[in-house]
Write a structure and sequence with these properties.
With about 50 residues, this protein is mostly helical. It has one domain. The chain is built from 2 helices and no strands. The radius of gyration is 13 Å and the shape is elongated.
Length: about 50
């Protein structure tokens, strides 16, 4: 059974928001490197984020 596209977009969009907010689900990394930059959500994703 495949996941509908709108759910994939919702999950991907929420993960970008969570990454930028430092959500704990991404954990902490012991590194001197900078955190990766998450690009803005594409407009086609924004309709699926609550």
């Amino acid at each position: 059974m495949s996941t509908p596209n709108h759910l994939k977009k919702e999950e991907a969009g929420q993960s970008i928001i969570d990454w930028k907010d430092g959500h704990r689900r991404f954990g902490e990394v012991d590194s001197k490197l900078e955190c990766l930059f998450a690009r803005e959500l594409p407009n086609s994703f924004k309709n699926f984020i609550v």
